[in-house]
């Protein structure tokens, strides 16, 4: 494997970790690409397969529609906009219990279809909050999902003219940028989906009374010498909302969602340890895994053991890196202050290139070493003050929540 290929894989993995774990240090520009989002979805899908295979048969049956949903979502995410033929085929092949989710990125919205025995429920919601709302919030935004929901009889949905017209609307909405605010770094208004589409569907059905969830949304708006700001992946929000709302409508409940999130974090730690991921990202992941373990409230069991092992593996890796830094520093040439030549005038030693070369010959790696491993030193100091197995909730999460 070439160096460029390895670097590219590391960048993609860092994208996935950054958007799933949302560490304190975030990029200062938009890092979205279609390939990055596809890779994120592939990681979630792979972890879901592994998680479902460990469940009892009855639980696997309830997870089956969600596994199918993730596969269908992965197919639609292979293109920057929805492909009409693919979406129409998915809708026509829906059976009772199936779920479909579509990210309409250009409209900053998602559409979810849930096929029941006699009707199909159409849900929609905003996938990325307003930048101004994110910046004004003192903590995380408290949002309710999904938004409007319309129930339509399956007799109407199965009409040969209904799916093509619906798909034509969705495919155009996924490719047409209609809100000029997006060019200025703001998110698009989702009203073409949450209002216009909802009103159109109301002509064929009626509002549905469905259970809703409330989530604390961690997002940020960061921009430095960039055209577009960094925002957390909207696809990741769609995945979480659809999984949680679906599982809470089954006998598995929210605990199954929490267990999967914990399992996903653990799998992500394994991938991070295999790649060349920075020490500060590893430490942030250990915090995230520890918090998931607390949310899971599992005192024993295979998953809890795996999560403990993940934090221990991160701890061992950070300590090994710190030990290597100390060994290299100890082996560096001895610095003799008596060899310093007096610099005339008001210039300091570091103002003169010749003086710097005299103090630090090419074979002396200490200055470069400390700069390169600064994040490791910070992580090691934090490691000495906190427990990596059950790390307290980070300062970001302790800030009071402000509703959007």
Describe the 3D structure.
Helices cover 53% and strands 10% of the residues. The longest helix has 29 residues, at 302-330. It is globular. By secondary structure, it is α+β, with helices and mostly antiparallel strands. The strands form 2 sheets. It has a 5-stranded antiparallel β-sheet with strand order 1-2-3-5-6, sandwiched between helices. A 3-stranded mixed β-sheet has the order 7-4-8, with helices on one face.
In short:
The chain is of the alpha+beta class. The protein has helices at 3-21, 34-53, 57-76, 84-92, 131-136, 154-157, 162-173, 191-202, 234-247, 253-274, 279-296, 302-330, 353-359, 366-372, 374-385, 395-398; strands at residues 99-104, 109-115, 119-126, 141-145, 149-153, 206-207, 213-217, 402-403. A five-stranded antiparallel sheet has the order 1-2-3-5-6, sandwiched between helices. Strands 7-4-8 form a three-stranded mixed sheet, covered by helices on one side.
Order of strands across the widest beta sheet?
1-2-3-5-6
Structural class: alpha+beta
Output the helix-strand order: HHHHEEEHEEHHHEEHHHHHHHHE
User: How helix-rich are the residues, as a percent range?
Assistant: 40-55%
Radius of gyration over C-alpha positions, nearest whole angstrom = 25 Å
Q: Count the helices. How many?
A: 16
- Distance from N terminus to C terminus (CA atoms, Å) equals 47 Å
Q: How many strands, which pairing sense, and closed or not: the largest β-sheet?
A: 5 strands, antiparallel
Report the β-strand fraction as a percent range.
Answer: 5-15%
Q: What is the average of the pLDDT values?
A: 84
Strands, count:
8
Low-confidence stretches at least 5 residues in length (pLDDT < 50)?
343-347, 352-372, 386-404
Query: Shape from CA axes?
Result: globular
């Amino acid at each position: 494997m070439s160096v460029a290929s390895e670097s590219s894989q590391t960048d993609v993995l860092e994208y996935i970790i950054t958007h799933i774990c949302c560490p304190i240090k975030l990029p200062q520009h938009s890092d979205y690409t279609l390939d990055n989002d596809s890779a994120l979805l592939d990681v979630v899908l792979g972890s879901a397969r592994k998680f479902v295979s460990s469940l009892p048969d009855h639980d696997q049956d309830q997870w089956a529609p969600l596994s199918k949903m993730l596969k269908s979502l992965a197919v639609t995410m292979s293109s920057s906009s929805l492909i009409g033929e693919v979406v129409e085929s998915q809708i026509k092949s829906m059976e009772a219990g199936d779920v479909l989710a579509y990210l309409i990125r250009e409209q900053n919205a998602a559409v979810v279809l849930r096929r029941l025995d006699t009707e199909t429920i159409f849900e929609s919601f905003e996938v990325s909050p307003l930048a101004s709302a994110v910046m004004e919030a003192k903590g995380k935004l408290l949002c309710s999902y999904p938004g409007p929901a319309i129930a339509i009889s399956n007799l109407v949905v199965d009409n040969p003219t209904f799916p093509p017209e619906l798909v034509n609307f969705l495919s155009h909405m996924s490719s047409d940028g209609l809100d000029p605010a997006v060019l200025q770094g703001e998110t698009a208004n989702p009203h073409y989906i949450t209002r216009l589409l909802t009103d159109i569907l109301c002509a064929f059905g009626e509002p549905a009374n469905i259970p809703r969830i409330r989530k604390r949304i961690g997002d940020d708006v960061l921009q430095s010498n960039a055209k577009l700001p960094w925002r957390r992946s909207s696809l990741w929000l769609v995945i979480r909302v659809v999984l949680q709302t679906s599982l809470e409508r089954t006998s598995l409940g929210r605990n199954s969602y929490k267990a999967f999130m914990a399992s996903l974090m653990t799998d992500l730690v394994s991938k991070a340890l295999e790649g060349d991921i920075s020490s500060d990202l590893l430490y942030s992941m250990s915090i995230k895994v520890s918090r998931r373990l607390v949310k899971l409230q599992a005192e024993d069991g295979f998953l809890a053991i795996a999560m403990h092992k993940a934090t221990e593996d991160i701890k061992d890796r950070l300590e090994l890196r710190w030990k290597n830094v100390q060994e290299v520093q100890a082996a560096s040439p001895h610095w003799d202050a008596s060899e310093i030549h007096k610099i005339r005038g008001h210039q300091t030693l570091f103002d003169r290139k010749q003086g710097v070369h005299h103090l630090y010959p090419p074979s002396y790696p200490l200055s470069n070493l400390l700069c390169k491993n600064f994040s490791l030193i910070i992580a090691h100091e934090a490691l000495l003050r906190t427990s990596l197995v059950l790390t307290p909730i980070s300062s970001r999460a302790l800030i009071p929540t402000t509703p959007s």
